[in-house]
Structures are given as structure tokens and as C-alpha cells.
Amino acid sequence: MPNVLPFWPTQRVIVTGGAGFLGSFVVEQLQQKGCPHISVPRSKEYDLRETADIQRLLKSVNPTMIIHLAAVCGGIGANQAEPGRFFYDNAIMGIQLMEYARRANIPKFVQVGTVCAYPKFTPVPFKESDLWNGYPEETNAPYGLAKKMLLVQAQAYREQYGYNVIYILPANLYGPRDNFDLQTSHVIPAIIRKFIEAKAKNEPTVSLWGTGKPSREFLYAEDAAEGILLAAEKYNKGNPVNLGTGQEITIHSLATLIAELVGFKGTIQWDSNKPDGQPRRGLDVTIAAQEFGYHAHTSMKEGLQKTIHYFLQQSHRVSTPV
To answer: How far apart are CA 267 and CA 207, in angstroms?
Structure first.
């Protein structure tokens, strides 16, 4: 049998958003896999909303693959505060980047979407075939629909041009390096920070958004990076693919678990005047297992422990004089 060259050592990869939360893990794993040419465009140098910057980037790198992770995103509050920005920036970055990548004959484009693209009342577990069965949950619909249009573009380009674009739908992500800013963060980093700060101040109660009744599926960021790179290497079809654990947890149960792990013994008050967001989220992850052998391996408890440890380390660095 002829010798088959390993895949990643032959690639030149652009990872948009590669300095961000998920992107940093993708870049680390590419390095571990021996990818010799990894380009991480920074927004100060390349504004992906501008066609001239995109063209300049592609010409300077001449990549064999683009993994498009760059996004403007945040929790429910951030989505409600800037729906126009969340729609425009996410749509225009992806649309133009995919178009100019096609024109430049870049062999493969990996588009990472969002679970927010699913209809508000999708039956659990969410199947990829459910994507078009309704409108997304209103609080993050502009973001979800912007990302969903990139699936339309990917499939249209595959049909008309034969362009190899794949579309991956990860569950809600969490882990070290996440955003812990209470104004813009997602649910897990927000709860971790609130409980740790309340414990430090001996506060008896913590107020959390909503009723605690909705459910979510969470995917540890390193596991997500692994799945994205497996798909980038092995998956070459037009159908979108869920990436997750296949396990659902209510926000109430999540908060109780985090309180236990950080040692917060006070009371949780649920502010039902704040929105819950989508009622339930849980993914069918069968296709990812079948198509490229993906299985998430970090348990919720283990992932939360690592995330809490990271936050405590960062807080210690900030509070310790140099």
C-alpha cells in the first residue's frame, strides 16, 4: 500500500477568531497535530466586515482551509442590547469571507454555526432536520438567523459551485478562557462568578436570571475544538452536523451543581422578570458519531471544576499586587 501523508502537516489554515475563547483551543490542537502554517487574523489588522481586508488576508496566507469561528456573541442581555450589531456583523463577516474564499479557490471552508439557529420550540433532542421548522427564540434570533444564513450560503455554494463548505452546530460552550464579564457573559461563567464573589463577601443570596426551569446542553470548549478539527479533516458533506454531549441539564440543576462545587451555601433567588430564553436545548449527536467518529469526553462536573479553577486563578492574578 502507498504511504498516506498525515493530513494536518500538509495544511495552511486560517482560524478566524483564533485568539478567542473557542479559537484558542482550536489553534492549540492544530499545533499539537503538527499543522505548520496557522494564521490567526486579528481585528486590528484585518476587519472581516471589509472586503479589502479579506482579500488582503487571503492573498498573504494562501490557505488550504479556513475555519471561521469569529463572531460577535454574548448572553441574553447582550443579544437584547445590540440585536442589529449581532445580526449585521455575524452575517457580513461570514458571507463575504465565504464568497472570497470561493473566488480564491481555497479548497475547504469550515463554518461554525450556533445552536441559537434552532426554532424556539424544537423537540428535544434537536435533530439537524429540525432547523427549518420554526423561528428561533426571540431574544437571540438576530444572531441565530445571521449564522443560519451562512448555512444557506454554504449549501447554495456547494450546489452551484461544488464548493466544499461544511457547517457545524455546537451546543452551548463553556470552559477556561471564557468571558466572565457579567454584562456580556453566557450562563455558566456568569453563575460561577456570582457564586464565588458572593461566597467571598459572605452574601446570603444570589439572584439569577429567569425561573431556572429551561434546559441547556453544554459542551466543554476543548471537546468542541476536537470535534471541529475532526469534521474539518474527515467530513465533506453539505448537511449541518450537531456537536455536543447529548445530555441536557436544567439551569436550576446547573446552578445547584456550581454552588456545590464553589462552596456557596446561600440561597438562590430566581428573577422571573428576566427572560428564560429558549425553553429547552438538547442535541441529537448521532450524525457526528457516524460521520467522523466524534464523542465528547469531558463530564459536566469535570468541566465545571476546570472552569472554576481557571476563574479563581485569574481572580487571584488580578487581586495580587505585582
So the answer is: 9
Nearest 5°: the CA angle 12, 15, 19 is 130
Q: What distance in Å separates the CA atoms of residue 299 and residue 65, rounded to the nearest whole number? A: 31
Q: Is the pLDDT assigned to residue 319 strictly greater than 80?
A: no
Looking at the annotation, which residues are catalytic? 143
Q: What angle do CA 207, 210, 213 make, to 5 degrees?
A: 115
Question: CA-to-CA distance for 113 and 20, rounded, in angstroms?
Answer: 16
184 to 16, 115, 124, 225, 265: CA distances (angstroms): 21, 18, 27, 22, 26
Is residue 125 within 8 A of residue 282, CB to CB? The reply is yes
Q: Round to whole Å and give the CA distance between 41 and 48.
A: 9
Q: What is the tens place of the pLDDT at every residue in 168-222?
A: 999 999 999 999 999 888 899 999 999 999 999 999 999 999 999 999 999 999 9
Instruction: Specify the pTM.
Output: 0.94
CA distance 189 to 74: 11
Q: What is the DSSP code (8-state) at residue 117?
A: G
Q: How many angstroms separate the CA atoms of 16 and 36, rounded?
A: 17
8 Å CB contact between 155 and 228: no
As a whole number of angstroms, the distance between CA 68 and CA 112 comes to: 6
Which amino acid, residue 75?
Answer: G
DSSP 49-110: TSHHHHHHHHHHH--SEEEE-------HHHHHH-HHHHHHHHHHHHHHHHHHHHHTT-SEEE
Beta-bridge mates of residue 270: 208
Torsion, Cα of 236, 67, 226, 40 (10° steps): 160
Strands 215-216 and 249-250: antiparallel
For residue 206, what is the enclosing H or E element?
A: strand 205-209
Residue at 34: amino acid letter: G
State the cell numbers at 1: 500500500
Per the CB < 8 A criterion, the answer to whether 242 and 228 are in contact is: no
Q: What is the DSSP string of 161-173?
A: H---EEEEEE-EE
